[in-house]
Amino acid sequence: MRSGSGIGSVVEGFVEAEMENGIGRCWCLDVRWTDESFKIEATLDRNSANGTETTKRVPAEIVHDVDDFPEVLVSVTRNLFALEAT
Q1: What pLDDT score does 7 carry?
Q2: Distance separating alpha carbons of residues 44 and 64, to the nearest angstrom
């Protein structure tokens, strides 16, 4: 977990895999929160010798009610892992 000015706290999670062709994939999930809301962001990144690029993105979700947070987090996570690693 990290924290920074103006962004609140952040928890980052990821799963990395190296494909048979040597290209790496990273399914990344960030949860940021402040006193007012949670923001859930998810990307599929491609890692190669040339660096990292985001190839696909799940639309960010903003949750204002803590009771809704678990359901939205599960939904974003499912959408993230449903992205094809092309």
Answers
A1: 62
A2: 25
